[in-house]
Specification:
Length: 99
Amino acid sequence: MKRPNFITQEDITRWDNNINNDPRMLPGVANIVSIREVCYSGLWLAESLDKLKCPRERIIQIQFTAGRYCFGRDPWVAVQEILDHYKNDQIKFEEEPIA
């Protein structure tokens, strides 16, 4: 899994801070190289969606979907595909059930 050239060391440092201080991250999980790379790609995706003025609730929903979509794949390819789908209005969400 090759990280894109446009990712800077400043990005990694910023994301490391987010990951290391996330209270939801299970101890030791973030130290698994493949999991950490999925986290980096997910944080890049969130920042990219934010720049496109995607609503925060949607960003969270898309990130969750992206994490599952990364399973067994190069996470950077997966999140780029998801971002492209978002930009082309090709992401479909299931409607929340009305209680």
